[in-house]
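User: Run a structure prediction on this.
Assistant: Running it now.
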Amino acid sequence: MSLHDPPKNLGHVAVVPNEHFENIYDLPAPVAAKIHECARVVALAMKSAYGCDGITLRQNNEPTGGQDVWHYHLHIYPRYEGDNFPRVEKEVTPEEQRVDCAKRLREHLVNHA
C-alpha cells in the first residue's frame, strides 16, 4: 500500500524498471513493451484477487505533468464503481480545435517516425 493510494483503491502496484530511465522520453521501446506486459499481468491478477470493476494505469512526466519521482514507473490502480478516484474532466473540446491539434501532432509524428 502506498501513502498516495486514493481511498477505496488500496493495493495499487507500481511497475519500475531495474535500469534507470527518468521518464517516458528516455524509455526504450523494448523496455516499455515489457513494462506494459507486466502491467497487463498485474491488472488481470487485480481483477481476480480484488474483484475490482476496472483498472487505471497512470504515469506522469515532468513537474507540470505531475512527475515528482525522477525514475520512470507505471502505477496500476484497482477501480470500483463510485470510488471517486481523481479523474480528468470529460469536457469535450470543440471539433475545430481537435482537428487543429491532430494536424499539428501529425506533422511532428511524421518527422519523428
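The first helix runs from residue 29 to 50.
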